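Entry type: protein chain
Record version: 2
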Amino acid sequence: MKNIIALLIVVLVYVQGSAQTVINADSTANLFNTQIKTFHSQVVNDNYRIYISLPDDYDKSDKRYPVLYVLDGDISFGMAASISRYLQFGGNIPELIIVGMGYGALKEKDGNMRRRDYTISSVPGRTNRGGAPKFRTFLKEELIPYIDKTYRTDTNDRAIYGYSLSGLFAFYSLFTEPDLFNRYIIGSPHLLWDNFRIFDVQENAFEKFDDLNATVFISVGSEEDEEKYFNPIDEMVTRLEEKNFKSLKLHTKVFDGGTHLIGPPEALAYGLVAVF
């Protein structure tokens, strides 16, 4: 009996010690060959947290890679890196360089400026809104040239992923600077901003451009609010279909049972397959 008790004590000490060792063994993590950089934008006059994930064989090859730019990078980058690798392993999409743009914070009070950068117009009584034109210029003149200069990118193959408010910005980019990206993944975009101002932007684009040379995926959940999301998105899809741009490849999907916050990974996974 004494031997059994002694053995149990040894096992407990070993387990407790092992658990303590595991907990304290590693305080850092490397997410899929990820680099994290602080990037100062002179256009916006602010700093951004930039997350960059390189393909697994990047250092072993001389290939050039398409780039996926992920808006809301503080919350969406890890998801994008993981989903992309699942799809790459399955041969569904090519290897990508993934670039997430964020702020190092999830809440506005802590420094997240998505409501400044992704909104397409200012509104009375709301400060730090309507920064989409400057953010688009930041992408075009500062961040994208830096990424193209620093990494082996295919400069003719760029995708952008935006969801909800950042999906609004993705539409804004498509309608105002359509050549900046050639693949758009737009999940449940927040089109009601400023009394649906994006439809004015869309109408101007339809008058200005003879064609839109892009592959676009648009999704929404069947259980999302009809007035805020489902109906406006359905209207935007209808307008794009009726315009029938020659070079526009349009893919749409309604996720059965999908709600607004269930949708991001579904939109990204199905969107990547659709646009690539």
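Comment: The chain has a mean pLDDT of 91.
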